[in-house]
Structure formats: structure tokens, C-alpha cells
């Protein structure tokens, strides 16, 4: 069975969890608590178990994968969710990397001790990206970001939209397509069940009021 090892937060593993859950792919979720991290890292960093000294780690038999993007792409290829054509695959990469960029805006903001005073800057920066994704999705005219069914990029985009909404609940109000995709993803039956389950961590990051 696949194994996914990460901290007890959503973080950079949640899009992978969402993918596995939506497709009902069995996996073992291994959680390493923050207080155990330094000793875990000292013991395993640079080994097959923790090749680059960071989580998440995904294991499929003898394959140990670091880098959340590599893990997501591996799974999308293996389970045929990368898109059918080279064009769909390239666009999936493009939208996935845009989700990574939006996630970076969120992470920079959420770890800033002054973040409450800097909400306007965060919202403006995030909306700058959302507007462009909204335009792309409109031009493309499909139900999800690239295709008419969820593919690679939708899982990361959903997670990113969800954490933005958590920080600013009106942030998607001007983006009906993105709001619609967020809703469709949230209401997919296996995802809805996961969101209610004890496999779901509430916190996107280890920040008490995030
Ligand atoms: N580019 C990597 C970044 C991984 C990363 O930053 N992991 C963090 C948790 S989200 C980590 O392991 N931090 C602990 C450390 O670096 O000591 C990915 O996407 O997987």
C-alpha cells in the first residue's frame, strides 16, 4: 500500500491526500509530530527514507519520493489524471505551478507575525493571481481548471482556494469560476467524506490562529 509521511497539518501534503481520497486509492498516512522532527531528520536525512531532509515523503514499494510536486505528478501519471493529450498535461503543469505560487503568497503571509495589519497587501497579491486564473478558466471553458473532470492541478488549486477562503472569506467573490470549482471539488462525495473524517487535519500550517 502507498505510504504518505507528513506532519499533522495540511501543509504541502493536502493536495496529495485530496487526490488519493477522491480516487479512493488506499494509502497509509504516517504522521510525524513536530516534537519528533529534529531527531527524525538527524536520523534519516540524506537516506532513502528522507532523501532531501524534508516532508512530505511518498512511498510506493521501493520508491521513496520527496518533493510534493513530483509526488502529485507521479500519482497523476499512474492513475491517469494528468490529462489525455500533451496539451492537457502541459496546462496541468502550468496550473499546478500557479497553485504553488499562490500557496507561496499564503505561506509568506501566514507566517508573518504582523499579518493582521498586512491583510490588504495579502489580499491584493492573492487576487492578482486569482484574477489571472479566473480568466484562464473562462477562456478554456471547461468545468475544472483544465479538463471537464478533475485532473492533477485541480487538487492543488482546490486546497489553495480553500486556505485563502479560510484567511479571507470573501476572497473568491469576484471569481465565479474559481468559486464554482472550489464548490464542485468540496462536494465530490469522497472529498466531502474525507473533509468530515478524522484523517483530515484542520490546520493548514502550524500557526495557532491560522
Ligand atoms: N519543495 C518541497 C518543500 C518541502 C518543505 O518545505 N517541507 C517542509 C514542510 S512543508 C519541511 O519538511 N520542513 C522541515 C525542515 O525543512 O526541516 C516540497 O514541495 O515538497
TrEMBL record:
Signal peptide positions (record): none
Query: Which keywords appear in this protein's UniProt record, sorted alphabetically?
Result: Transferase
Which top-rank group of organisms is this from? Answer: Eukaryota
Indicate the enzyme's highest-level EC class. transferase
Q: Where would one find coiled-coil regions in this protein?
A: none
Q: Which InterPro entries match?
A: Glutathione-S-Trfase_C-like (IPR010987), Glutathione-S-Trfase_C_sf (IPR036282), Glutathione_S-Trfase (IPR040079), Glutathione_S-Trfase_N (IPR004045), GST_C (IPR004046), GST_superfamily (IPR050213), Thioredoxin-like_sf (IPR036249)
One Pfam match: GST_N
Q: Which residues form the GST C-terminal domain?
A: 85-205
Q: What are the protein's GO molecular function terms?
A: glutathione transferase activity
List the CDD domains.
GST_N_Sigma_like
Q: Return the Gene3D superfamilies for the record.
A: 1.20.1050.130
Catalytic activity annotation:
RX + glutathione = an S-substituted glutathione + a halide anion + H(+)
Q: Which family does the UniProt entry place this protein in?
A: Belongs to the GST superfamily. Pi family. Belongs to the GST superfamily. Mu family.
* Summary of subunit composition and partner proteins: Homodimer.
Q: What is this protein's function?
A: Conjugation of reduced glutathione to a wide number of exogenous and endogenous hydrophobic electrophiles.
List the PANTHER family hit by this protein, alphabetically: GLUTATHIONE S-TRANSFERASE, GLUTATHIONE TRANSFERASE
Protein name listed in UniProt? glutathione transferase
Q: Which organism is it from?
A: Galdieria sulphuraria (Red alga)
Which classification does the entry list for the species?
Answer: Eukaryota, Rhodophyta, Bangiophyceae, Galdieriales, Galdieriaceae
Amino acid at each position: 500500500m502507498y505510504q504518505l509521511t507528513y506532519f499533522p497539518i495540511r501543509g504541502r501534503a493536502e493536495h496529495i491526500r485530496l487526490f488519493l481520497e477522491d480516487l479512493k486509492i488506499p494509502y497509509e498516512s504516517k504522521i510525524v509530530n513536530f516534537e519528533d522532527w529534529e531527531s527524525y531528520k538527524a536520523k534519516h536525512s540524506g537516506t532513502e527514507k528522507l532523501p532531501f531532509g524534508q516532508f512530505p515523503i511518498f512511498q510506493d514499494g521501493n520508491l521513496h519520493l520527496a518533493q510534493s510536486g513530483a509526488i502529485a505528478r507521479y500519482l497523476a501519471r499512474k492513475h491517469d489524471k494528468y490529462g489525455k493529450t500533451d496539451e492537457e498535461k502541459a496546462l496541468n503543469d502550468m496550473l499546478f505551478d500557479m497553485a504553488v505560487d499562490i500557496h507561496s503568497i499564503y505561506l509568506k503571509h501566514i507566517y508573518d507575525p504582523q499579518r493582521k495589519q498586512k491583510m490588504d497587501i495579502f489580499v491584493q497579491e492573492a487576487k492578482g493571481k486569482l484574477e489571472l486564473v479566473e480568466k484562464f478558466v473562462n477562456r478554456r471553458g471547461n468545468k475544472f481548471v483544465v479538463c471537464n473532470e478533475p485532473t492533477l492541478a485541480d487538487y492543488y488549486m482546490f486546497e489553495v482556494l480553500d486556505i485563502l477562503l479560510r484567511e479571507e472569506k470573501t476572497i473568491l467573490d469576484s471569481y465565479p469560476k474559481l468559486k464554482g470549482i472550489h464548490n464542485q471539488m468540496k462536494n465530490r462525495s469522497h472529498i466531502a467524506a474525507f473533509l468530515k473524517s478524522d484523517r483530515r487535519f484542520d490546520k493548514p500550517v502550524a500557526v495557532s490562529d491560522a
